[in-house]
Design a protein that fits this description.
Oligomer: single chain
Order of helices and strands: HHHHEEEHEHEHHEHEEHHEEHEHEHHHH
CATH superfamily of one domain: NAD(P)-binding Rossmann-like Domain
Largest sheet: 7 strands, mixed
Shape: globular
Length: 454
Amino acid sequence: MSDYTNKVLDQVRAKNAAEPEFVQAVQEVISTIAPVLDAHKKYEDNCILERITEPERTIMFRVPWIDDKGNIRINRGYRVEFNSAIGPYKGGLRFHPSVNLGILKFLGFEQVFKNSLTTLAMGGGKGGSDFDPKGKSDREVMSFCQSFMTELQRHIGPDTDVPAGDIGVGGREIGYLFGQYKRLRNEFTGVLTGKALHWGGSLIRPEATGYGCVYFAQNMLATKGDSVEGKVCVVSGSGNVAQYLVEKLNQLGAKVVTMSDSNGYVYDPAGIDMEKIHWIMELKNVRRGRIKEYADAFPGVQYFEGQRPWGVPCDCAFPCATQNEINGAEAATLIKNGCKLVAEGANMPSDLDAINNYLSAQILYGPAKAANAGGVATSGLEMAQNSQRLNWTSEEVDAKLFGIMKDIHENAYGHAHEFAAATGTTGSFTNYVAGANIAGFVKVADSMIDQGLV
């Protein structure tokens, strides 16, 4: 890296020493865009790195609510509006005990480049709370969501900041949040995405992140004349992203043998077929149970308490749970056991050591900002439908999603090979990390320069 990139990275580390996830995300991006910065001095002259690594606005607030026993409870709410150079802030809300400012800054920073890659006019943001919806009644979740939105509504709007769901924020939570926004603002607008179909939602939105990740994997494999058909796949997570990713893999003829939750993972050598994934959807989305119950329901299934599935031999791996769920040693095990493709459904699920192992082994690796952009892309399509007061068919939305993921792949693929030429590493290997980061960065950085020092 150049003196400029090293200087900025040192500044980021010093200013954000208590936020390791954010520093990790910044380091991963800066280390790969260095050739662009060296070739185009305008970015240094305009202090783009210093500006792009600092949120435009960070909002933090108290969220008081009352539980079913009449007790007053207090949580902390956040919204990090990171960058609006190419459009209104767009990014999910996460309700989980692990939420803090550093995690949301890392997610918001990643969102800037992910949204840029989609080709849609969306800036980057992220928000949420340390509230845990698990084990809470619908009434308690509604009480919390209404209190949360009472403050958040001051800062968002269909042309300003359009939140969506993330971990812990599904259709139920989006409904309560939207209802409170509508009540307070006296307006029915597309201020949130992930809405129910009968009041402004989009077909294919629940499926979009999982489907899009598989489409990106298919595009990577196609560069090798291959496809996911017949591939043995390991998947982590069992929430929305993992569920529909497994559904799409089944549709395309792959065999999925694992899924997980925060307690452990299940290994099903017979494969998690369509009947079984729909059983898991009912378990997780309706009964809100644990993945361990799957092992009790189907013969031949093993459950591994407190473990992650990365030791299971496979052709393809799809981490869909949470950040840093694959470390360097686990990545090495995946590669040793024959894994030839990793496509990330979760946000930054591989740590820096894991990423270095993928790149050293030259396997197909689709980083999250490219591979899991299908969700936010379809959120953008939902925004477009809301603005036009239209509803597109599922076939129309799926076709648009497929096209967007193909465009993202081509953009990342093209910039990866430009990066290889600039660094003298030309060959058959495609560094999608560099390609995605450069493609996302250039669009946002040039827009920032166009708009002046703001």
